[in-house]
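DEPOSITED CHAIN:
***
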Amino acid sequence: MAKMKDVLRPLNEGEFWVIGESLNVIGTEIGRAFKERDPKPIQAEALLQKEKGVDMIDINLGPAKKDGHELMPWVVETVQEVVDDIPLILDTSNIEAIRAALPKCKMPPMINSIMVRPARYEAMVPMAAEYNADFCALMWGPEGLPRDENERAALLVELMMVANEAGIENDQMWVDGIVTPVNIQQPQAISLMNFMDMLPEIMPGALSTCGVSNISSGVPDELRYVLNVTYTAMLCHHGMKSFIADCKDDITMDMAHGKRADILDVIKRIMDGENVDVNSVSEELQKYVKSANVILGKTLFSDSWLEV
């Protein structure tokens, strides 16, 4: 049976897959459409994401405690009435909602996500195996967020062994090492990149993903995209294969399809240790140079980091 990666576009050097994030219960219009079973906003969003070039569509119901087992299959079928050639990601903490929706998926699906907690993976890994579903392996353990790359690695080994024993292969697991806000936990940004360097050795063939916009949580809205794009480029250089992102962010979508080599190149120079003179690059690239230096801890973060 086909896996998620088998139906996705092939990636060239520097490219990555985009998971559309906007079919989310926290959105005012989409949240209302979920509640009222109004297909029009849901289908309009799915068609927009397809037009923008997303590779996967995330359907995020949140907890969906009350009626998730009815809502998730309905949303899946509603989306597939207008977009049936893009894989869907079933995103909710309600396990029965995912179970009810998996048989409805026309393309190979993904479960988002399975935490490294026995109470979760003991119930969800067999379900993923039963339906041949990929899953997002979330590095969130019994004690919450791992402190560093070594704790992430230990969690990954635990979940990988459980999944492999259930017959799930490494290339059906999309490892999410968890992105945290740079203005609160700056060392975690480096830890995640170190973990990504370890991933191929720990788990050959594994894929990867993340909610990259978490890097800019708490930052003024008009500046968030700069950090998001910068960290996307940095993680891409460390082997990240996909990003949960806003399809209306044209810069990220262009990067995903290999159209912004200038951003990737200048970020790589900084990550390789070069002291890039901001005056030697364009005004746009200066923002990414300054942001990379903040993420790497070379300069202190403040809401005015771009003005320094």
Q: What stands out?
A: Strands lie at 17-24, 56-62, 88-92, 110-115, 134-138, 173-176, 207-208, 242-245. The two ends are 53 Å apart (CA to CA).
